[in-house]
Task: structure prediction
Amino acid sequence: MSKPRRGPVRRALRAALALTLITALGALAIETWVARSVAARVHAPDAAPQHAVIVVLGASVLRDGTPSPMLQQRIDTAAALWRAGRAPLVLVSGDYDPVREYDETEPMRDALVRAGVTWESIRVDRHGHRTLDSMVRVREEFGFDDALVVTNGFHVARAVYLGRHHGLDVDGVIADVGVDRAFSVRAYYVGRESLARILAFFDCHVLGTRPPKHDERD
Result:
């Protein structure tokens, strides 16, 4: 009996492996480029430049309606920037779903007021369901041409990248400078953010993704 021919199978496996490797390297290149292209626009709080508005991106709210620790870091940093005169206004942008009775923006505004930001200095965007939505709406719905965006270190480059792609003169401020997290937590957020940066690239340059249109403004 003749032995089965393994040549075609091996060639197919090698081709599949090569394609997988090329795809992985391409994805890594995109993720790295997104971060490096805006690196000069990312600052620690004490080095933040002046802008027209401070944008605070939403994050999860606890069951009792208070900001999660990660969101509280963003709020505390934004309040400190406002008190330091980096911008006269603060725009909070987060998720709002009346069906689920979930709202990130009201706890954000209340926490800012507790931190000393005046009520009349705060603007609210309840349609910041994604980072892309938030950054596009800063300019197109609220009329600001330049902004500081405040979020955690793993997230800030993507926010700046999306804002700049959509015509916003934006600098990013890291809200968790000096915060030490467990390795597993850091690995989770870094891994998730790597995928999100790749998606942001495709949203901007391939898919042309736009946020849903909303007429309501706070």
User: Anything to note?
Assistant: The chain has one domain: 37-207. The domain at 37-207 is CATH 3.40.50.620 (Rossmann fold). The helical segments are 7-37, 69-83, 105-114, 131-140, 153-165, 183-207. The mean pLDDT is 89.
